[in-house]
């Protein structure tokens, strides 16, 4: 089992953001989640990532419980606006993050920076990057350790058309390698082109919206 959520409810500030969700992913592929702003997509993804603890229920990723300080293994994610050390370059930021696990070398980091359309030898500090460049760098940090589960919350935000095409290519390449991708996007075309199965998040509940696999 790749992802398993059992009766997951999340209350925040007196509101039920997730309401008794039962959700499983057994087969690698690209799984889309659509819904209005505030529908709970980001909370769902952060709960799977172990960044938020369910009020009720439990979450397992690759058979192991997440939450309460336990995070998924073989996992990469992009949430909100990526946070980096403003005075560091793109390469130095990713080297810093990579040092936590020590599973990727500088050569691999340089390559992944190129994959997302940035230049590894650009010594400009990240604070001088545009929103789109920061988003590209955020995607680079999510994929650089070649995770088996990749969670992308609105990865196309701030990207121009070439950036969108590059990210779509990255997602398809990871899919072909057997990686499972969870994707939230406001862009209907992203969902239609990339996803094998689509879920609708509405009023804290998750249901199948489109199924191809």
TrEMBL record:
Domain (ABC transporter): residue spans on this chain: 3-213
Family annotation (Gene3D superfamilies): P-loop containing nucleotide triphosphate hydrolases
InterPro entries: AAA+_ATPase (IPR003593), ABC_transporter-like_ATP-bd (IPR003439), ABC_transporter-like_CS (IPR017871), P-loop_NTPase (IPR027417)
Keyword presence, Coiled coil: no
Entry keywords, A to Z: ATP-binding, Nucleotide-binding, Transport
One family name in Pfam for this protein: ABC_tran
Listed GO MF terms: ATP binding; ATP hydrolysis activity
Entry annotated with the keyword ATP-binding: yes
SMART domains named in the record: AAA
Family: Belongs to the ABC transporter superfamily.
Protein name: ABC-2 type transport system ATP-binding protein
Organism lineage: Bacteria, Bacillati, Bacillota, Bacilli, Bacillales
């Amino acid at each position: 089992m790749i992802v398993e959520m059992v009766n997951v409810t999340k209350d925040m500030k007196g509101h039920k953001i997730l309401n008794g969700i039962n959700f499983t992913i057994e087969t690698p592929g690209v799984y889309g989640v659509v819904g209005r702003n505030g529908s709970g997509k980001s909370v769902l993804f952060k709960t799977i990532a172990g960044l938020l603890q369910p009020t009720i229920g439990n979450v397992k990723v690759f058979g192991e419980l997440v939450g309460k300080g336990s995070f998924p293994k073989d996992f990469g994610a992009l949430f909100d606006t990526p946070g980096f050390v403003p005075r560091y370059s793109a390469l130095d930021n990713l080297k810093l993050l990579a040092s936590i696990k020590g599973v990727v070398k500088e050569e691999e980091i340089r390559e992944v920076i190129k994959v997302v359309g940035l230049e590894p030898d650009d010594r400009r500090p990240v604070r001088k990057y545009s929103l789109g460049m920061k988003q590209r760098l955020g995607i680079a940090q999510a994929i650089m350790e070649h995770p088996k589960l990749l969670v992308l919350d609105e990865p196309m935000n701030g990207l121009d058309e070439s950036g969108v095409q590059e990210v779509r290519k990255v997602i398809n390449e990871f899919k072909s390698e057997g990686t499972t991708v969870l994707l939230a996007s406001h862009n209907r075309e992203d969902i239609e082109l990339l996803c094998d199965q689509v879920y609708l998040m509405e009023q804290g509940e998750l249901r199948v919206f489109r199924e191809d696999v």
